[in-house]
Amino acid sequence: MGDNVVARTFRALVESADQKFARVRDVPTYGRGPNHYFQKVFKAYTRLWQYQQENRLKLVEAGLQRWEIGEIASRIGQLYFGQYMRTSEARFLLESYIFYEAILNRGYFQGSKGSMKDLGVRFKELRFYARFLLVSLLLNRSEMVRVLVERFRALVDDCKVTFRVISLYISRKYMPSVVVADYSSELF
Asked: What confidence score (pLDDT) does residue 27 get?
């Protein structure tokens, strides 16, 4: 199978899984909902995860970034957490923790630091830390909570510095009446 075919198949699987994920993300966490959607989404992400594992080398050569792998794992963790919220079954919470811990240990988001073009990736990383922190709190993993709080705090501080120029530009362009003058003296 050619690299181009592998990359196109991967992108198609990502798009299909994302569409299914969007459907279940908006289902309320209470009451009886259409549970068959969750099974379809789990199946789509399982297929996607297996495909990227089997074709990792070709996908990396075609431009797959580490954070994209982390995003897939993070979505699977979110699905497990969503199932926990709907069913209160601790096994789903533990599965979510396992995926989040793997993302952290493998450093899937580590390569995204410092580049202005990856603001969206940094937001994904911040959301990952927030979700993992919540799961760790629910499981009473106090040592992991300490680690995550430190990393989250450091990441927020880094984002404040790295993306300050973008923040100022947006403030000036879309909110001109907001007090932006306070920052301009620090910038220039």
From this structure: 72
